[in-house]
Amino acid sequence: MHSTFHASDSGQAIVQNATTVGVEQLVVTLHPGNDSCVEVQIKEEVSGDIVASAISINQSGLQQLVRWLREQGAVD
Question: I need a labelling partner for 16 at 20 to 30 A (CA). Which of 6, 25, 53, 66 fits?
Answer without folding.
Answer: 66
